[in-house]
Amino acid sequence: MSTDHRAQVEELMADYRRSRDRLAETHRDLSAIAETARSKDGRVQVVVGPQGVLREVVLADDVYERQRPAQLAAIIVQLTAAAAQAASRRVADVLAEVLPAGADPELLLGGHADIPADPAPRNEPRRIDDNVDEDPEEDFSNASWLRQGPAERKW
């Protein structure tokens, strides 16, 4: 290999290693995101992860005496939504550092980035004709290829 090509390969490998390290760092940063939300009285607390998944619910010992079940459930849902929104903002901040200039991390996270307005057409359903003449040589109803050795299989 010529010296010129060797230098190019070495530079490409160095770029790859830098990209791989940056990806690992971004993954660690994203994994570490956790957002906490608390009720006004501090008796209910929730923690969500980077994807808004509920990780923890902490309830004060007397919360059941002060809240009806429906009220408590509504508070938990509200706090979870608020914490998930805060986590989403932090995820967008982390991604903004590594995405190309002009890319919108919020749009990407919302699942709407680079999606054409008209989805690709799907295959149309077809009728299957069950009344076809079957070849008597190809009756597999009583056979199991799982029980046969490789040499016995007829493909």
Describe this structure in words.
With 155 residues, the protein is mainly α. It is built from 4 helices and 3 strands. The protein is flat, with a radius of gyration of 29 Å. The two termini are 46 Å apart. 8% of the residues are buried. The model has no long low-confidence stretch (mean pLDDT 80).
Strand order of the largest sheet: 1-2-3
Helix vs. strand class? mainly alpha
Number of helices: 4
- What series of H and E elements makes up the topology? HEEEHHH
Strand content of the residues, in percent?
Answer: 5-15%
Main sheet makeup:
3 strands, antiparallel
Percent of residues in helices: 40-55%
Distance between the termini: 46 Å
Query: Rg from C-alpha positions?
Result: 29 Å
What is shown here, in short?
Helix content is 43%, strand content 10%.
Present the secondary structure layout.
Elements (H helix, E strand, L loop, with lengths): L2 H29 L3 E4 L5 E5 L5 E6 L3 H4 L2 H28 L8 H5 L46
Antiparallel strand pairs: 1-2, 2-3
